[in-house]
């Protein structure tokens, strides 16, 4: 059976039949290629292992670890309609629902200045629990309504630096629904997870190889993403080499003019 995950985006109307809007839909194409491919693999052997290794906050890996599924293609829906917009993918497991928002090169599509964080006086800094139109805030409400009594996760997928900046901003403003856990995994983290999968099935090996080559071609091999627990932003870190070479030009003789000297 030939896999063509970009076909998912076209079927859903995300890419025009002529491909004329392809440049504007790179994220939708990437969504279909990556998560459309992974749904052909056992969840336990594939996406589960990738998320456990790369999801942040790390505490959410416990929720992922409790999901026990092999065939899961029937659980994922791409770009489901909702009155507040389209989330890229929604995965509904028995006890957990995961909403996925994918970014490649662009930023959040909509935002405002709403913040529901408590200030020093115990008052809301901007608005008193006003619903934000920020894309991720709206999508957290989609996940909240879709999840019933399940564990609910809104997963942001982007470049490593973008993930950290967006996560910091969103958490500081407290605009995610209270019953939804906001998390991220970077493309670098996904690539790292793919490289560490233990796969025996020949067909699944082909899928993993294709995905690794795709993400490398997209430029996500430039560095290995890493996660540091704690509030990294408020601390100073120095990553440097231990070994240092010192060059000294100290000489014992007196240097005189008009003479030739050689330093070796």
Tell me briefly what this model is.
This protein has 264 residues and is of the alpha/beta class.
Protein architecture, described:
- Helix 6 (160-173) links the parallel strand 4 (151-158) and strand 5.
- The protein has a 5-stranded mixed β-sheet.
- The protein has 264 residues and is of the alpha/beta class.
- It has 8 helices and 5 strands.
- The longest helix is centred in the last third of the chain and has 16 residues, at 202-217.
- It starts with 5 loop residues before the first helix and ends in a 47-residue tail after the last helix.
- The protein is extended, with a radius of gyration of 24 Å.
- The protein has one domain.
- Residues 7-11, 17-24, 120-126 and 232-236 have low confidence and may be disordered.
Sequence-ordered SSE layout with sheet pairings:
Blueprint (H helix, E strand, L loop, with lengths): L5 H6 L14 H13 L8 H8 L6 H5 L10 E3 L10 E4 L3 E7 L32 H12 L4 E8 L1 H14 L7 E6 H9 L6 H16 L47
Helix pairs in contact: 3-7, 7-8
> What sequence of helices (H) and strands (E) makes up the elements?
HHHHEEEHEHEHH
Secondary structure: helix percent: 25-40%
- What number of domains? 1
- Gyration radius (Cα, Å) is 24 Å
What structural class do the secondary elements suggest? Answer: alpha/beta
The largest sheet has its strands arranged as 1-2-3-4-5
User: Mean pLDDT score, rounded?
Assistant: 82
Low-confidence stretches: 7-11, 17-24, 120-126, 232-236
Q: How many strand elements?
A: 5
Number of helices: 8
Shape: extended
Beta-strand percentage range: 5-15%
Distance between the termini: 67 Å
The largest sheet is: 5 strands, mixed
């Amino acid at each position: 059976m030939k896999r063509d995950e970009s076909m998912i985006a076209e079927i859903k109307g995300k890419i025009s039949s002529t491909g004329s809007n392809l440049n504007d839909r790179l994220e939708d194409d990437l969504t279909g290629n990556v998560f459309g491919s992974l749904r052909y693999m056992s969840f336990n052997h594939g996406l589960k292992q990738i998320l456990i290794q790369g999801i942040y906050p790390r505490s959410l890996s416990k929720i992922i670890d409790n999901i026990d599924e092999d065939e899961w293609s029937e659980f994922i829906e791409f770009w489901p309609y909702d009155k507040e917009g389209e989330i890229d993918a929604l995965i509904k497991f028995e006890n957990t629902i995961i909403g996925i928002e994918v970014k490649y090169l662009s930023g959040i599509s909509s935002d405002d200045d709403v913040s529901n964080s408590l200030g020093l006086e115990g008052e809301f800094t901007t608005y008193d629990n006003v619903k934000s139109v920020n894309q991720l805030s709206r999508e957290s409400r989609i996940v909240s309504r879709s999840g019933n009594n399940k564990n609910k996760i809104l997963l942001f997928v982007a470049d490593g630096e973008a993930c950290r900046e967006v996560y910091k901003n969103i958490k500081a403003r407290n605009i995610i629904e209270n019953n939804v856990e906001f998390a991220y995994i970077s493309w670098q983290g996904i690539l790292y997870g793919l490289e560490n999968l233990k796969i025996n099935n020949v067909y699944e090996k082909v899928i993993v190889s294709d995905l690794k080559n795709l993400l490398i071609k997209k430029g996500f091999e430039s560095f290995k993403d890493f996660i540091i627990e704690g509030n990294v932003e408020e601390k100073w870190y120095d990553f440097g080499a231990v070994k240092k070479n010192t060059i000294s030009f100290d000489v014992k003789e007196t240097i005189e003019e008009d003479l030739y000297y050689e330093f070796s």
